[in-house]
Design goal:
The complex is a heterodimer of chains A (about 650) and B (about 375). With about 650 residues, chain A is an alpha+beta fold. Chain A contains 25 helices and 21 strands. Chain B has helices at about 1-5, 5-10, 15-20, 25-45, 50-70, 75-100, 120-135, 145-165, 170-185, 190-210, 220-230, 240-250, 265, 280-310, 315-340, 355-375, and strands at about 100, 105-110, 115. The chains are: A alpha+beta (about 650), B mainly alpha (about 375). Chain B: Its main location: membrane.
């Protein structure tokens, strides 16, 4: 097939024409590409630069150091302890299991530990460190450090974690911290982003939770560069946060420790309060528990032991427990009657051993009766009939009003958990609560702190402090926040005539210091420390007619949980009261014999420098026994004031 | 065929050929490849051995191949065109049965150390075949339906084999390069007009039938198209790559962030940073200036090819050169459109710059053919 030269010239020209055309199209495309590049890289550069920065930079929170909690003298109650731990990073370890086996030769590691780490390591990104061992001894940590070359990916770490050096002494007051739960997050509106940091801990109960905002501090931030998988490449800069504020409580750790030891294994609570400032010097609930267990994550076994104990170690009986106050309530009835003018301190009531009203017979604790009883004797010998009588005259509403003025039936605002309101019943209350009318019998029962009346040891201590000072003392638990001392509000007068209060106090003096007083064994012989008080023994069961016919059986023969509660309130010194104490021993038996001695020991401990109450304050006949008892108390050695507010 | 014979007298022989090589083109190609080495070093975090080293070695092999091909007279290659075409079709069939799928659904066969990607080869053999066909065909007959149908079949057979691999990107490139050679050979514009109209109609019906029982594409394929038009609709899914690619490109700004300072690529936000999206690293680190420079280099490579073709009076040679230049252009245009968010992500590397052996070697062989045509041109 031969073509002429002319043909090939023609076709070549045609190809060239089309080539030029195609070249033109390509040039146009190049222009489009260039324009697009210009648009993205020049016109929109700023926007894309911003996006690239947003991609690259991640803001991470730096958890602030939690504020520490000290006692009134600066002794550490809740601090931040260095916690040594070992973590493993999968990508650096290579064969995680082999490394863990080698690590097990160096530090104690159980098979389940290894399993857990393996599972977690598989679940997370390879660069996420997994905790292998927590709260290790320094020796173990250094062993890991020494063996580092044979343990790739294993890193010893030091982190701060909460520690309570006085463990059981403050478990109920200070509470503990724990990891943030879903529940916690749900409760808080607009939660602090800090709470979403894994391992971040917040207060769960007690001061730790009620003063969470003060203690927590403000998170710092660090800007880090991350890659597309979220791995941190480097830190760009950081802004340190503010550590939480330290808190000083009003509690004296040494007194607290003494009281806790004095309560021993009893199911009991004690509150000691400064009658002028309202400062709580000690507030204990027994038995207690070790809050450190909760911080570390309590084992199922330990937790079961706490919940199954019939002495309820987890309950804070001092504020949460509501008990019939029994005879300790008699000051309220007396003051109500005195203020209403239905009696004077000298008014005498005849006690034949029982009181009849509305066709029912109410017994005095003393079957034989007290005979003619005045205010002072009614208190010192705790005559019930006297109160049945005067309560009838004054009526429940006035009694309830006096009770409220003395701090019963109301919630005292302390940064503690589960504070009870107690019950200060009156006619309206019963109507609302039971839709029933108030009956005479109700007043009779209430007059001696039984029936519907319920009060917590804290309320009883406040009541005693108010009677002692004549002022509406407010209890207070926090002395200072950060470097700021909180002002002590001056308590307003109770509005009860001073002479009436004096005669009630005189009766409380008689309880202890007169030979026939129910609390005579609990007297303090040091004239500068003379104590006044009131015992109470409250029934937790109804005594049936059949029982009564057989004769009321003594407490000792009853099962523990049906025995009476033993209560005692007291204050001292009598002439110039400084401290008021309330003690409740659950199912303890007699108030004077069980709770009274504790009140005296606590009062003496509060009023003297310690470490033990002075034996010279006890009646001579009791000194030998007291010495044995006091010296056998398991007191702990409390580290002196932490100076310079050092942070671990 | 005797038409070709007299050229032998004027064609250089022996070492004289070296002088007639289009050295400017060699230089441009090398410069373009070296931009690739630079960027491959950068994305490897400054390490040459990871990607840049192997890439350089491949380029060296490519240069040897290019010169070998260049020294063989162009008429030998023309005579080989049919055979080459048949062999590549055979390989496409073989790879369908024995090949390995990998690297973004490209099929390849490993023959010892050589990795063969028949679809890459097909681009060059198709150009050779079409150029030889139009060289053989009387130019007067090019627009006759029968003589149009034949090259269309020549194009569609390898395209179909590539489509079922499935490798849509390469199939598209085969179609475009085939059409380009037909256009250059002088096929009447009417044909192109009709095909273009039919294409528009097809696209229109694809979209208008969406959601009806007669829809052409699978739902996921529609979604992919959606993603292309609005990547932000699915920023962590399918749209992620294209968004990150645009951020890398745009954040480079006028002058870029500097060598190895590109955060998008260094921190792995940029996908396929050493292959398909290498241009974005260049744009991020050297800015508009750097990216435009590469564009100019590409334009010059193509311009030199076009110039060489237009000087060449041999029909096979000029069609071959132009076809290869068009192939090269489509390659880079599709890649750049893709990485700049102007086209869906189809997985086409950036010629000479992206990391990868097979494509580079085929390209170097193609430039060898260009050089052969240039050396043995009719003077």
């Amino acid at each position: 097939m031969r073509r002429s030269a002319r043909d090939s010239e023609d076709s070549a020209r045609k190809v060239n024409r089309r080539a030029l055309f195609l070249g033109g199209a390509m040039t146009a495309m190049f222009a489009v590409l260039g324009a697009r590049m210009r648009y993205l890289q020049v016109d929109q550069a700023d926007e894309f630069k911003l996006l690239a920065e947003e991609n690259r930079i991640n803001i991470r929170l730096i958890p602030p150091t939690r504020g520490q909690i000290f006692d009134r003298n600066g002794r550490l109650i809740a601090g931040n302890e260095q916690n040594y731990r070992v973590v493993i990073t999968r990508e650096d370890a290579g064969d995680v299991e082999a490394v863990l086996r080698r690590l097990a030769d160096v530090i104690p590691l159980t098979e389940p530990d290894i399993e857990r780490v393996m599972t977690e390591a598989r679940r997370h990104s390879p660069f996420v460190p997994i905790i292998v061992a927590d709260r290790m001894a320094w020796d173990d940590l250094s062993k890991v450090a020494i063996n580092a070359p044979s343990l790739p990916g294993v890193t010893p770490e030091v982190v701060l974690s909460r520690a309570y050096p006085l463990d059981t002494d403050f478990a109920h007051v200070v509470g503990y911290v724990g990891p943030v739960s879903e529940n916690d997050l749900a409760k808080i509106e607009d939660p602090d982003p800090l709470l979403k940091i894994p391992e971040f801990q917040i207060g769960k109960i007690g001061v730790e939770t009620w003063m969470e905002d003060t203690l927590r501090g403000k998170a710092g931030t660090k800007r880090i560069e991350v890659n597309a998988y979220g791995r941190m490449m480097r830190e760009i800069d950081r802004v340190e946060g503010d550590a939480g504020d330290d808190i000083r409580l009003t509690i004296d750790a040494e007194i607290q420790d003494f009281v806790q030891a004095r309560l021993g294994a009893e199911s009991a609570a004690a509150v000691a309060i400064d009658v002028i400032t309202g400062d709580i010097l000690a507030i204990c609930s027994s038995p207690s528990f070790d809050p450190n267990l909760f911080v570390r994550g309590i084992s199922f076994k330990d937790y079961a032991a706490l919940t199954e104990n019939d002495h309820r170690p987890l309950a804070n009986k001092a504020v949460q427990g509501a008990y019939p106050p029994g005879s300790t309530f008699k000051m309220v009835t007396a003051l109500a009657a005195l203020e209403a003018g239905v009696i004077t301190p000298e008014t005498a009531v005849y006690c034949p051993g029982h009181y009849e009203t509305g066709g029912r017979r109410f017994h005095c604790w003393k079957r034989g009766g007290h005979g003619m009883v005045s205010l002072s004797r009614s208190l010192s010998e705790s005559c019930d009939v006297y109160y049945y009588d005067i309560a009838q005259r004054v009526g429940i509403d006035k009694i309830a009003e006096m009770g409220r003025r003395l701090g019963l039936g109301m919630r005292h605002d302390l940064p503690m958990s589960a504070i009870t309101e107690g019950i200060m019943p009156d006619k309206a209350w019963k109507r609302q609560r039971y839709e029933q009318d108030w009956r005479i019998g109700d007043t009779i029962n209430a007059s001696i702190g039984q029936g519907y009346v319920l009060a917590s040891p804290l309320q009883l201590a406040v009541m005693t402090a108010r009677v002692a000072s004549g002022r509406a003392v407010q209890p207070r638990l926090v002395r200072s926040v950060g470097d700021t001392e909180l002002p002590v509000p001056e308590a307003p007068p109770l509005g009860v005539d001073g002479s009436l209060l004096r005669s009630v106090r005189q009766g409380m003096y008689a309880v202890i210091n007169e030979r026939r007083g129910t609390g005579h064994t609990n007297r303090i012989v040091d004239p500068a420390l003379v104590m006044a008080g009131k015992s109470g023994t409250s029934q937790v069961r109804n005594i049936s007619a059949a029982e009564r016919a057989r004769g009321v059986i003594s407490n000792d023969q009853l099962p523990w949980n049906r025995r009476d509660h033993a209560l005692f309130v007291g204050f001292a010194p009598f002439d110039a009261p400084r401290v008021a104490v309330a003690v409740v021993v659950e199912h303890g038996g007699g108030g004077s014999s069980v709770a009274g001695p504790i009140v005296r020991d606590v009062i003496l401990r509060c009023l003297t420098p310690g470490p033990l109450p002075p034996l010279s304050a006890y009646p001579e006949s009791q000194r030998a026994r007291m010495e044995t008892l006091l010296t056998s108390l398991p007191l702990r050695k409390i580290e002196p004031e932490v100076t310079a507010r050092s942070r671990a | 065929m005797s038409f070709l014979e007299y050229r032998v007298k004027t064609a250089p022989t022996g070492l004289a050929k070296v002088l007639h090589i289009n050295w400017a083109l060699v230089l441009l190609v090398t410069a373009t490849a070296s931009v690739g080495w630079l960027m491959l070093t950068s994305v490897a975090g400054g390490d040459i051995d990871t990607w840049a080293g192997p890439q350089m070695k491949r380029f060296a092999v490519g240069l040897v191949l290019m010169f070998s091909v260049a020294f063989v007279p162009i008429w030998f290659w023309r005579n080989m065109a049919g055979l080459a075409y048949i062999v590549s079709l055979a390989l496409l069939v073989v790879v369908e049965f024995f090949g390995t799928v990998g690297m973004g659904a490209q099929r390849w066969i490993a023959l010892g150390p050589i990795v063969l990607q028949p679809s890459e080869m097909a681009k060059v053999t198709l150009v050779m075949m079409l150029a030889a066909y139009y060289d053989w065909l009387d130019p007067k007959k090019v627009s006759r339906p029968l003589w149009v149908l034949l090259p269309v079949l020549i194009i569609l057979v390898p395209t179909a084999l590539v489509v079922i691999q499935p490798n849509l990107g390469t199939a598209l490139l085969l179609l475009m390069v085939g059409a380009a050679v037909m256009f250059l050979a002088g096929v009447s514009l009417w044909y192109f007009g009709v095909v273009a109209a039919m294409g528009v109609g097809a696209i229109f019906s694809v979209f208008s039938l969406r959601g009806t029982p007669w829809q052409f594409l699978h739902d996921y394929q529609y979604r992919r198209i959606d993603t292309f038009f609005d990547p932000t609709a699915d920023p962590l899914g399918a749209g992620y790559n294209i968004i990150q690619a645009k951020i890398a490109l745009g954040s480079g700004g006028w002058a870029g962030k500097g060598f190895m300072q590109g955060t998008q690529s260094r921190l792995n936000f940029l996908p396929e940073k050493h292959t398909d999206f290498i241009f974005n690293t260049l744009a991020e680190e050297f800015g508009f200036v750097g990216a435009a420079s590469l564009l100019v280099l590409y334009a010059l490579v193509i311009a030199f090819c076009v110039a060489s073709a237009m000087q060449n009076r041999d029909r096979f040679s000029s069609l071959l050169i132009l076809g290869i230049a068009a192939n090269f252009f489509f390659y880079l245009a599709v890649n750049l459109s893709m990485v700049m968010g102007m086209a869906p992500v189809v997985g086409v590397p950036l010629p000479l710059v992206s990391y990868g052996g097979s494509a580079m070697l085929v390209l170097m062989v193609a430039f060898g053919l260009v050089q052969s045509a240039h050396v043995h041109r009719l003077r």
